[in-house]
């Protein structure tokens, strides 16, 4: 009787696949979607604090204005913009455009570059308006 387990093909594993931009953007799109839940809870907390009185509002502003708070808000801004641009990419695919390998790869790279540039732009404008 032959041992059939030794002749069975192995399933592909992550070590077999070459990491490509569209694969990375798919993973990052899912991660940013999850991060948006946490960031939206922070925005809701800030709005509730604003409605709860001056002391609560001052405390929320202090937390979000700290270095750690600003880093979290920077990450939230990037996640929001990155997820939005990824949504536009998916909308384009839903309409039947951009399925060619070269186009989808360029869109994936544009997504990351665009989200980083837009994040910097939003924060620069935010700091300019503040002063």
Automatic annotation (TrEMBL):
Species of origin: Rhizobium etli (strain CIAT 652)
One cellular component (GO) term of this entry: membrane
SUPFAM superfamilies for this protein: Fumarate reductase respiratory complex transmembrane subunits (SSF81343)
Membrane topology of the entry: Multi-pass membrane protein
Main location: membrane
Record-level GO BP terms: tricarboxylic acid cycle
Subcellular location, record wording: Membrane
Cofactor (UniProt): heme
Organism domain of life: Bacteria
Known function: Membrane-anchoring subunit of succinate dehydrogenase (SDH).
Record text on cofactor binding: The heme is bound between the two transmembrane subunits.
GO molecular function, one term: electron transfer activity
Keywords: Heme, Iron, Membrane, Metal-binding, Oxidoreductase, Transmembrane, Transmembrane helix
Subunit and partners: Part of an enzyme complex containing four subunits: a flavoprotein, an iron-sulfur protein, plus two membrane-anchoring proteins, SdhC and SdhD. The complex can form homotrimers.
Name of the molecule in the record: Succinate dehydrogenase cytochrome b556 subunit
Pfam family, one: Sdh_cyt
